[in-house]
Amino acid sequence: MPAGQGHEDRYASVDRADYRPGLPPAGPERGQAIVEFAIAFPLQLMIMLFIMQLALIYVGKQVVTYSAYQAARSAVVAQSEAEARMRAHRAAAMICSPITGTTIHGSDVSPADVRMASIELPGWGELPKSGISSRLKTHVSHLQFIPPNEIEATVTHYYELTLPVVGFLIRTVLGRRPEHTFEHPIDPGISGATRGEMEHEDATGIWDITAPHMRLRSTARVAMPGVRE
Q1: Is 35 part of a structural domain of the chain?
Q2: Within a domain: residue 57?
Q3: 111: number of Cβ within 10 Å
Q4: Better-predicted residue by pLDDT, 203 or 148
Q5: Are residues 137 and 204 in contact, defined by beta-carbon separation less than 8 angstroms?
Q6: CB within 8 A of 177, min separation 6: which ones?
Q7: How many structural domains does the chain have?
Q8: pLDDT, greater one: 196 or 179
Q9: How far is residue 206's CA from residue 174's CA, in Å, rounded to a whole number?
Q10: Strands 120-121 and 213-223
Q11: Mean pLDDT value of segment 147-169
């Protein structure tokens, strides 16, 4: 067979105007590939964004778990219940500030309230996003002394779902205002965290924010150095 004859026979039926040496002819096959890409790519993109959002939620959950431990640890050194709550809230807000979303539009909290609630660190200055975390999106929903020598803190953080489309899909599945399903990890009879969450949500209008959010909650206990009388 003469050189190049097989190549010519393969494209013998192709219009010479559409023939491009070294490339497949432009025809129905090319259009089919474009249609397949148009159908498959959005689905692949959604799956990728969903996996990324789940990974971010997992990281946020770890941060909230650590903030609950720090809240309980900070309350240990307090001399009164009011001071314990103040210390616990400040510690939790500081720890959760890096994962705090910046959207506050739609809530009952104004930018002025956020600025007033910002946390100043000696030698560092204002901690970024600490005002939003402290005033709106991080809440010590339960703080209790557990006899004989432990203190327990439950921190609830309202985590902003930042990735496009999938955040609203997750909020649609969970509901615009998710039900309170708090189950105490140690004592099922304790429901203080649920009451604290409901009061905070009603006071701040957290679920009216335009960006989608979800609750991240964690409870921690810390032993005290002595027994509180």
Answers
A1: no
A2: no
A3: 11
A4: 203
A5: no
A6: 201, 207
A7: 1
A8: 196
A9: 15
A10: unpaired
A11: 91
